[in-house]
Design goal:
single chain; 12 strands; 175 residues; six-stranded mixed β-sheet
């Protein structure tokens, strides 16, 4: 399994018991969706390795307490600390309406209600306080804040995101 075929689920943050149990911090708004998994991919030195889950349950809302098969001792558990957890993309719940996953909209066209067609989304920059669409317009990069108030409609069939940005925002990049 390759990382690009998976989504990041969370990170193993600490040991829970002397029997090899671990606690994972999940990167999701709905942790209960992931409390009954059969297996999970663990990133071990850049390789995704499948681990089968003996038991798992939510622990204090956003932590998942996991007992992997064949991880039965503290040293076994210790070796998995701070590793990232992944699941195949097809296990992501489907989103509807104007909600979307970042990876899902790469390649979509941005159309602005004032400006018209802006360009194609090449990436999402989520390293800033406000996530940004990185849009390519004939070689010029335009950054548009991913603000719910700006996003008018997500059309998955046509691969178009309609936005209504403040007047002059797009012109800042083109003058």
């Amino acid at each position: 399994m390759k990382k690009e075929d998976c989504f990041y689920l969370g990170k193993i943050v600490k040991k829970y018991s002397f029997k090899g149990e671990l606690l994972a911090k999940l990167d999701t708004d709905e942790p209960d969706l992931y409390s009954n998994l059969d297996a999970i991919f663990v990133d071990l030195r850049g390789n995704l390795v499948p681990f089968f889950i003996e038991s798992s349950q939510l622990h204090k809302s956003d932590l998942l307490r996991i007992k992997f098969e064949d991880v039965d001792t503290e040293p076994d558990a210790e070796s998995l600390l701070k590793t990232d957890l992944y699941l195949p993309l097809d296990l992501l719940p489907k989103l509807e309406g104007n909600k979307f996953y970042f990876h899902e909209v790469i390649g979509f066209t941005i159309k602005d209600s004032n400006y018209g067609e802006v360009g194609v989304i090449t990436a999402i920059n989520d390293s800033t306080a406000q996530a940004l669409f990185e849009v390519d317009r004939n070689g010029v990069e335009i950054l548009i804040p991913m603000n719910d108030e700006f996003i008018v409609k997500v059309d998955r069939e046509s691969k178009i995101i309609e936005v209504n940005t403040p007047e002059g925002l797009i012109d800042l990049y083109l003058d």
